[in-house]
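for ur thesis appendix - Transmembrane protein 42a. copy paste whatever u need, i formatted it the way the template wanted (i think)
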Amino acid sequence: MLGGSVYALLAGFLGAAASCSAKLSLGASYLTELCERGVRSWAVEDSRILSLNVDPAACEWLHIPLRLLCGLLLFICNAVMWTFFAKALRHSSSSAQATVTTTASNFISSAFLGYVIFGESHALLWWVGIFITLLGLFILHGSSSQDQQLDVKKEE
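the 3d part is after this line
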């Protein structure tokens, strides 16, 4: 029972990671800006230590292999996510439980990764929706464990 929930949580996180990878691979400006900020900060740190000169023009072509890497990461995360979701379906007491757990995990992971990577914030209505989803998840988990206890009592 616990294994299905863990697989579902991991599947949700990997789905969010795949979404972030897609956003990074298709949004050229974000990777270019990230590269330029990194080069500037490295140049400042390295100039104090080694007086190394880093050319910011490298970011004009460096975003292309980074985008390809993010595209590859998108496919890998999706493949592993579907594997974990299939295992969650197999180990859960119901498909609804695995689906709702994966969805809730995906929403929360998307919010976290969006805030950390892209600096996104969400409106109060979005958080109310997440709270209602999590409340439904807890009700679903509670009712499925009670159903299993009733089934055991009926068998006795």
